[in-house]
């Protein structure tokens, strides 16, 4: 009959106590790096697997974390999830992934479902339709560990990690100006999102610093977050109208960039009239037509940091009162333009 490997077997083989083995497998700070290495290597050698039910009962934890994103098909979010999983699984946590599809109602249902499944904590990137945060604040006040990534909210004091959106937007807009473009449209996400506000501020600051008068007609918000192609088509027609005459376009999200390129690919006349910089983490962005310059976010690293922050909250033996918001650099990739 098959018998699973045990902590006692590892302890006997390495001549250490079972409690030392247990702490080493949990990555306890009480155990030296050398001992942890010996234990982990031997555990892998004999194919040791922890008993999740026993661990859960002992620690009063489920050893699972919930993740809420807008859309896993979005390249940015799929990459953040990969980063989350790389940390979570190594630390012994299972990951339960849910999607809001940018719906407030679905966000409320999914977060409630995760909490009812007794996850140890939740990683959240806000829906573009969410303006009421009570479904989150109530869980936070009851002590559920919550960490925000990418789309964050200021109302809750906890760990947060996002892109340096102001800097990325500023650099993208400034580069368009330096390349000779003056009338720069800004295709923005839903106005209440943190990323929308921060990227708009970067865009406006770049215009001001280069002494370009702000024209509010050059800003269009996409309240559907890129889920409505018609909304984006109408914005493009507005920017290219004779009364506006935009020369370039700064697009403020991955999904908006993807849908815009799809529209322009089917309308070469419009594509020739606009130089575009957009946020995009697509793996095929460099071969898309028409050409687009882009800002790539550190999505995988963001996921890793968010998971580390959440696990720190979950495993802390004492209440945590000091939090940080980490800002990650975006990488700007310029792909040339007709004005050289």
Automatic annotation (TrEMBL):
Domain HTH lacI-type: 5-59
One GO molecular-function entry: DNA-binding transcription factor activity
CDD domains: HTH_LacI, PBP1_LacI_sugar_binding-like
Keywords (A to Z) from UniProt: DNA-binding, Transcription, Transcription regulation
InterPro entries xrefs: HTH_LacI, Lambda_DNA-bd_dom_sf, Peripla_BP/Lac1_sug-bd_dom, Peripla_BP_I
Name used for this protein in its record: LacI family transcriptional regulator
């Amino acid at each position: 009959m098959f018998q699973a490997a045990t902590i006692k077997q590892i302890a006997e083989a390495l001549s250490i106590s079972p409690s030392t083995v247990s702490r080493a497998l949990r990555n306890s700070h009480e155990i030296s790096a050398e001992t942890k290495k010996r234990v982990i290597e031997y555990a892998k050698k004999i194919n040791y697997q922890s008993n999740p039910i026993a661990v859960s009962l002992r620690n009063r934890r489920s050893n699972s974390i919930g993740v809420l994103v807008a859309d896993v098909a979005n390249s940015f979010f799929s990459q953040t999830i990969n980063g989350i999983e790389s940390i979570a699984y190594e630390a012994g946590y299972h990951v339960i992934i849910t999607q809001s599809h940018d719906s407030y109602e679905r966000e409320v249902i999914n977060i409630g479902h995760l909490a009812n499944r007794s996850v140890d904590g939740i990683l959240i990137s806000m829906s573009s339709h969410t303006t009421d945060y009570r479904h989150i604040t109530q869980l936070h006040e009851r002590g559920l560990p919550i960490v925000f990534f990418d789309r964050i909210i200021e109302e809750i004091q906890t760990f947060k990690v996002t892109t340096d959106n102001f800097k990325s937007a500023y650099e993208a807009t400034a580069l368009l100006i330096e390349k000779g473009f003056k009338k720069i449209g800004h295709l923005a996400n839903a106005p209440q999102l943190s990323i929308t506000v921060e990227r708009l501020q970067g865009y406006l600051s770049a215009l001001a610093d280069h002494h370009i008068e702000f024209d509010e007609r050059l800003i269009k918000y996409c309240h559907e977050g890129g889920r409505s192609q018609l909304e984006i088509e109408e914005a493009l027609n507005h920017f290219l109208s004779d009364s506006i005459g935009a020369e370039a376009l700064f697009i403020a999200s991955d999904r908006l960039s993807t849908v815009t390129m799809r529209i322009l690919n089917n309308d070469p006349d419009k594509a020739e009239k606009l130089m575009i910089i957009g946020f995009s983490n697509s793996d095929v962005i460099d071969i898309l037509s028409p050409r687009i310059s882009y800002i790539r976010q550190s999505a995988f690293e963001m996921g890793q940091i968010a998971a580390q922050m959440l696990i720190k909250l979950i495993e802390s033996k004492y209440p945590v009162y000091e939090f940080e918001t980490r800002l990650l650099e975006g990488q700007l990739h310029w792909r040339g333009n007709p004005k050289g």
